[in-house]
TrEMBL record:
NCBIfam families: flippase-like domain (TIGR00374)
TM ranges: 20-38, 135-152, 158-187, 208-227, 247-266, 278-296
Superkingdom field: Bacteria
Membrane topology: Multi-pass membrane protein
Alphabetical list of InterPro entries matching this protein: L-PG_synthase/AglD (IPR022791)
Organism expressing this protein natively: Lujinxingia vulgaris
Protein's name according to its UniProt entry: Flippase-like domain-containing protein
Subcellular location: Cell membrane
Pfam families, A to Z: LPG_synthase_TM
Record GO cellular component, one term: plasma membrane
Keywords noted in UniProt: Cell membrane, Membrane, Transmembrane, Transmembrane helix
Coiled-coil positions: none
Length: 331
């Protein structure tokens, strides 16, 4: 009598470093263009004006930001009854940061792939966590930038339109009748019928994560975590001698620029985030020359986006060295 052993789960596809390298190349080209615009002979002295301890402090504040966002991640997993020990959960969460340069950070679904491979959690069950993270990130940034938009009248049209779209999306997802009708329609399409079951599971998780109490708590956590990066931006602006600088202005510029970059769906918001940040700094009179505004932009992106990508890469490499658990599950 013969028996066949189950086919081992191949797990998630290996990370395609080429895609990350293209994003790095794009960043270098964009940043090089900004540098030429500002003139290197003016930009380099501006960068040298910021003490290294300020840059280290900015990175430390980013790290605390990741701590609050990890707490949010844990709250989501707990609400979905996904039981993962905190150490590997932290590694998985941090590994997702390497995909911060993917469009809209959707590449952070890598975390769901790792949960599936190591703990047998179906992707359809955990992927809504990544969606809820992005949604509450947006809501947190909206909360930080709202008063600034009213005060400075910078980006008001885009801000209001984007906020309305996000709130409409949340409202639509709360309508079981609407979503069930859409999923039933999917089931009637032969080529998509097989997706109906995982989509229903994903919607069940999504609806759980968007309950009013949890949505309010995680949005508050998001606003607090992003405010820490806004504080890091204030430290850099202060070191560069920004005129009439207040924490309020720094938080607003950082929030509205990050928000515009996220909504653009460009990889890491590259180009639009930097351009809007420099433009806002100049428009609000914090700087009268391009060089210090660009220096501030370079340094805050180094301490937030690229610092996060580095942390994520190291965490992913560390996690990949873990022995396989042998879990296998379907989507």
């Amino acid at each position: 009598m013969s028996s066949s052993s189950p086919t081992p789960d191949p797990g998630p596809a290996p990370l395609r470093l080429a895609r990350l390298m293209w994003a790095v190349v794009l960043a270098v080209l964009l940043y090089g263009g900004f540098a030429l615009w500002a003139d290197l002979d003016q930009l380099i002295p501006a960068l040298q004006q910021v003490p290294i301890k300020v840059v280290i402090l900015a990175c430390a504040l980013s790290a605390v930001n990741y701590g609050f966002r990890f707490l949010r991640w844990q709250l989501y997993l707990q609400r979905l009854s996904i039981d993962v020990p905190w150490r590997p959960s932290l590694q998985i969460f941090l590994a997702g940061l390497v995909m911060s340069i993917s469009p809209g950070k959707v590449g952070e679904v890598l975390k769901s792939a790792l949960l599936r491979r190591s703990f047998g959690v179906p992707v359809a069950r955990s992927a809504p966590v990544v969606f809820a993270e992005r949604l509450t990130d947006l809501l947190g940034l909206f909360a930080i930038g709202a008063l600034g938009v009213l005060t400075f009248e910078f980006g008001a049209g885009v801000f209001v339109g984007a906020l309305a779209a996000v709130l409409a999306l949340i409202g639509a997802l709360q309508s079981q009748t609407l979503i069930n009708a859409l999923l039933t329609g999917v089931g009637r399409i032969p080529r998509l019928a097989r997706l109906q079951a995982p989509l229903r599971q994903a919607y069940s998780s999504t609806r759980t994560l968007l309950s009013p109490t949890l949505l309010g708590a995680t949005t508050l956590l998001s606003a607090l975590s992003w405010s820490l990066e806004g504080l890091a931006f204030w430290c850099i602006l202060d070191a560069l001698g920004a005129s009439e600088l207040t924490l309020y202005k720094a938080l607003f510029v950082y929030a509205i620029s990050t928000l515009l970059g996220a909504l653009s769906f460009l990889p890491g918001g590259l180009g639009l985030t930097e351009g809007s940040m420099v433009g806002a700094l100049m428009l609000l009179g914090l700087f009268t020359a391009n060089a210090p505004a660009l220096a501030a932009t370079y340094l805050i992106r180094l301490a937030t986006l690229w610092f996060g990508v580095g942390v994520g890469a190291l965490s992913l490499l560390s996690y990949e060295r873990r022995p396989p658990t042998g879990h296998s599950d379907s989507l």
